[in-house]
Amino acid sequence: MAKYIGLLVIAALPVLAQDTGISAERIREHTRFLASDLLEGRGTGTRGGEIAAEYMATQLALAGAKPAGENGTYYQSVPLVGIETQAGATLGAAVWGKALDFRWGDDFVGVSQTQRPDTRFEGEAVFVGHGITAPEFQWDDYKGLDVTGKVLIMFTNEPPSTDPKFFDGRALTYYGRWVYKYEEALRRGAKACIIIHTTPTASYPWEVVRNSWGREAPFVKLEAGAKALSLQGWITREAGEKFLALAGRNLDDLLKASERADFRPIELGIQVRGHLPTKIRPLATRNVAAMIPGSDPKLKDEYIIYSAHWDHLGIGTPVGGDAIYNGAIDNATGCGILLELARIWGSLPRKPKRSVLFLSVTAEEGGLRGSEYYAAHPLVPLAKTAVDLNYDALYPWGRAANVVITGAERTNIYPLAQQIAKRLDLGIALDAQPEAGHYFRSDHFPLAHAGIPAFSIGHATEFLGKPAGFGEQAYQEYNSRHYHQPSDEFQNDWDFTALQQAAEYGFLLGQDIANRDKLPDWRPGDAFHR
Ligand SMILES: [Zn+2]
């Protein structure tokens, strides 16, 4: 009888928790170390960052993974330039004798793309709505206006839509990203491009913008003779209101106007000038790469990639007396999972057919620079890369009810991804905020852009055995109070079960992909199809 009860209890436990051997406690300990103050926020090109990279390489070596970087090392050098706009930066606007000066940090932030120690510019302001030219959606905010030498003022994001055929419905497209805005402004010969921040259009508060741009940011070194914006900047909503008021315009009216296809750019008659004293230094940083060979003589030339960025924001503006941006959730958690996956893969008595590459990239926080660099300089051929399964910022708040694998539905391995969710008794949740464009904000994206089926594995906010609304509340608190703040710190009471589940999910999926006959691909007709 006692035995019988025991069996029942065992049968009621989650099926594969023991089978994979993946340990929540090991993920916890990696996270704790990587998020400690001693690593000083793991800034790109800093001592703390270098220690983090060394730790990743060491742990990968201990897991039995071989060097997959340059010259028989665990590293791929990523040459960047660190650009830090100095606090003396000025931005002013003037019209008919009226003038406004904006305060660095409180009102505006930004950098000059010129990569010069001192940039001054002056130009007329043109409001260009969302700054989008998207022929496939019959949308053009520029309407043929020549904006050469102008200072463009715009909102981030894109026209709101519930129609899947128009800007992909609620989901944010690449056109809605600020990265695209600056690219388009530069293509059109603008002198500067300033985005008016609003929390709804950006989907994050001003502090996130300020913390990202009000500090050193890494850029790929500018090629000689390349065009550059004198300022890619942001101003707060309040500063934006004052700015537009100089031209007798109202921010909400302009936001509304910019949501119509018949919107036309508005020459504001405002003269904008700026001065950006800038500290520049070469930034030597590294991706970490290690591999475990496959067991099939032919298929071992093909690779599954697991990725997770090791960097965070380093030391920055103190908040409540704390200047270390520990990045515990973002992304010590993903690194912990990557290392645990390597340990488990390394301990498999018989390896899967294809090889696996563990890639811990740098400079994610500076704009996905490490993964961009990898996509441009892959260590194994892109055509022989089966998939990239990425981990970025997972929530240690208990046992998750589901996984989020946004992007997987666009690939032909989605049925496999569904089966594995079923095996682990996990639902597949849709991205709760498709409008936030998470798909473009993590390291799988540059690889997807290069044709590799790629997505991140994470969780939604449903946690089992918790009161209703628990996960949502925890998420809101994290997103508004700790995301990209010094308070993203390791907490002793965190429960890493969900991270174990995410690792198990990726492990089983990666293993199945490593053993199947054909390389995965995007569905035919997908923009990323290879
Ligand atoms: Zn981040």
Description of the molecule:
The protein is an alpha/beta fold. It has two domains: 2-64 and 293-514, Aminopeptidase; 83-280, Glucose Oxidase, domain 1. Helix content is 29%, strand content 23%. It has a 15-stranded mixed sheet that branches. The protein has a two-stranded antiparallel ribbon with strand order 7-8. Helix 3 (47-62) runs parallel beside helix 9 (328-347) and helix 9 crosses helix 14 (497-515). The longest helix is centred in the middle third of the chain and has 20 residues, at 328-347. It is globular. The structure holds zinc ion. The site of zinc ion has 3 residues, from loops. Zinc ion binds next to loops.
Descriptors for this entry?
alpha/beta, Aminopeptidase, 15-stranded mixed sheet, 2 domains, disordered N terminus, single chain, binds zinc ion, 29% helix, Glucose Oxidase, domain 1, globular
Task: Offer a quick outline of the entry.
The protein has 530 residues and is α/β, with parallel strands linked by helices.
Global Rg:
24 Å
Structure classification:
alpha/beta
Helix content class: 25-40%
CATH superfamily of the largest domain: Zn peptidases
**Beta strands, count:** 21
Count of helical stretches: 14
Bound molecules: zinc ion
CATH class of the largest domain: Alpha Beta
Assign the CATH architecture of the largest domain: 3-Layer(aba) Sandwich
Low-confidence stretches: 1-18
- CATH topology of the largest domain, which one? Aminopeptidase
Please state the overall shape, judged from the principal axes of the Cα atoms: globular
